[in-house]
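ugh ok fine here u go
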Amino acid sequence: MNQSIKDQLKGKKILFATVPADGHFNPLTGLAKYFQQAGADVRWYASDTFTKKLQQLAIPQFPYVKAIDTNAAGIDNLFPERKLIDDPIKKANLDIIHGLVYRSSEFYEDLQQIRESFPFDLLVSDSVFPVAPLVKHLMDIPVVAIGIMPLGEISVDLAPYGMGLLPPQNEEEQKKYEELRELASNVLFKESIDSYDALLKSYNISIPPSMLVNLLIKTADLYLQIGTPDFEYIRSDLGENIHFIGALFPYTQKDQHEPWFDKRLNEYKKVVLVTQGTVEKDVEKLIVPTLEAFKDTDVLVIATTGGSETANLREKYPQHNFIIEDYLPFNEVLPYTHAFITNGGYGGSLLSIKHGTPLIAAGVHEAKNEICARIGYFNYGINLNTENPTPEQLRAAVEEIIINDLYTNNVTKLAGELNSLNSNELCAQHVVRLLDKIAVL
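structure:
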């Protein structure tokens, strides 16, 4: 660890705060430990869902008190109407309003209470933690936001975020995207934009209304984007507060466990890993079609279910070429894998790239269409443009990945870039510069 960084972080009180979702909490754990090991007093405002992890990390927790824990209760259980919505725009509006905007005052009350006993110098949040502007403007505390999904900043060069559209290829598409940006602001996302604007105005905060993801990026003192420019579309108007930091992965403790291995890895020349993360519980979307695609073939399929229907799947698919587990250490599986089938989780996608494994992406909701679109656009894999792929689509995609070196070559190049970056130290350098800048004001 850089001694200068260590000296400047020592004694700083840093509060991490995240919305209650694995993909928002986990990527920040490595950074939190890095700051703690540098001598900062690190604590975390988090859902009780993460109490055990924080105990293992030896990071003190401030639990949700006023805030409704949408993770523990399950957002579909809290808002049953969500299950009936197929349109990704409508679902995004509901998620933003009920999961973020309506929670903002609750989060802020909790943070005010926390500040009384822990007068934090800096807030580090995931990129959609909705209270960051309140902390910045009302508490006068600097905010560092970590971009845990592809960059959502609105740009004159791109379509509106959330639609999964590729960069324009000609003037006609540029004009179309300009119209779409207007449509997104004034029609499609107007409900959630107006809802958050009303929330800010209730605290006498005046910020030009915008899509929530964009607004949170613009208002952060520092926005540290997970990923690299080579996994992001080119913008001529990139915000000056935005910096790419490479692949920020969860903290892992060095232990003495035996590395994962299955003897079937020596029996098969083609190995496929499939997962649909921990949030998506419907195994019929991705895992079942993958198993159907490769029953009794020369392809070894390793499926992780996230704890959903593992026993039932093992009973239904007892084939020798299937390994079905709740969880597996991807760092130990991916070195054997020729293709990674995913619904577009950002952390898993970057981990696959880190190991030089091409991807087959099939996701739509929760901004996963943006991740899948980038995978296809940059030829780091194949985007199937659906969250319900058929076995035939999956089989054809795996065959294309295996026979076409384009994808492996591209992923290998990006892996070299990711693996050359010390992401935690990069973040620390940016944070130290921010704190120095504030100190002289």
